[in-house]
Amino acid sequence: MSTVDPLRWPAIANVPTQGRTRRRARKAESEFAYACEQADLSLEGPEADLTVLEDALFLRIADAGWLGLAESYMAGEWLSSNLPHVLQRLLETGYAPKSSARPKGLFDARATPVDLLRLSAGEGLFGYASVFSSGVPTTERVTLTPPGRGKMKHAQPLSVEVTTLSDPTIVERLDQADAQARALSTLLDFADVGTGTYLADLPAQTPAAALAAIARNATVDVMSCDDELLAELEAVAAQAQGAIEVCALPGPLPEPGRLRRRFDAVVNVDGVEAMDPGALKTWLHACEELLVPGGRVALQTLVGTEELKPLDSALDVLRAYLAPGWHGHSMESLLHAMNARPGLRPQEALVFGGHYVEGLRLQRERFEAHAREAAALGFDAVYRRLWIFQLALKEALLRAGLLDAVVLSATLQPRRGV
């Protein structure tokens, strides 16, 4: 704990010791031990699945549930040689420690630090998603019934073509860059990006989408309010000979009616999962305003399954430290949200969680191998453990069937009478 900066990490530096928390800690300890037993996780011996180094772990769990479990890992109070396996087994047993209610935050469009992307994903800065060359696609047309509430309850059933990629058969470390590039290429295919396309990346998360698009002879506007990313985007644009324009947004998303340009396509990479419902509505409204008739919007994101709902608190560490608006939107709710816009009509979906999770594993292993470089770049031990934990958590959630990964697309229908 002596290495924890209390100004930067107040919740990590200060173990909760209130009387009520102390009284609940013993119960938290017994419940954790029972969950580990049910999950067939060993806590002792040379081959222990996890090792508890300090009893502060149980004070934190008693105070903040899954967030406390994560913060204890960040503090170095427990460790595991196979963190994704431990988290997956706890999730599969339904481990859901009680915690004080903490309100969910709002989407702030913060981007992953570029240096972290380099250490995790490599110089391509592709982000999280991967599509490996193995895996068999299966396509079916799915009819989705509108949710029976609000304005959607009188809507017509929604028919969408859904392609599911079977799990990759062989995954090696050397496949990482190619798989990430293939995921990005898939997204651009869904947006119908090609020669002459005028594309908006809103809000941008990395320069990768823009670089892949100009390789297809498209012209790109990249939009963000993240200062560090904007600097990186400006450096990339300076080498793109006018094919990339950087647009600094005053806030996470453009206000309706403020952007006057029109685009053939709008894409988003790894952003929608971090949007609260209000931000998602604003983003879809912006897409509708930005597109020309017949234009396409395509997004790549993690989605929650029905099984996630009772274990949603497992995501609290993401909300607390990385993306305050992180929301487990389901694929169906995203498609219905698109369809609720007057002009947008969902077209197709790709489900590829089995590929995404293998890419996460490779990124986590790559980052662990570059821990010294991360330290040299100023990411302290707490941040490094946070980064490893969030990668392992997403991997565990995917393997446990609580999250999936999708690419979705919709088309802007021409206005009547036009």
UniProtKB/TrEMBL annotation:
Question: Which Pfam family, any one of them, does this sequence belong to?
Answer: CMAS
Q: Which domain of life is it from?
A: Bacteria
What SUPFAM superfamilies has UniProt attached to this entry? S-adenosyl-L-methionine-dependent methyltransferases (SSF53335)
Entry's InterPro entries?
A: CFA/CMAS, SAM-dependent_MTases_sf
Q: Where is the signal peptide?
A: none
Q: Tell me the protein's name.
A: Cyclopropane fatty acyl phospholipid synthase
Organism this protein belongs to: Corynebacterium pseudopelargi
Source taxonomy lineage?
Answer: Bacteria, Bacillati, Actinomycetota, Actinomycetes, Mycobacteriales
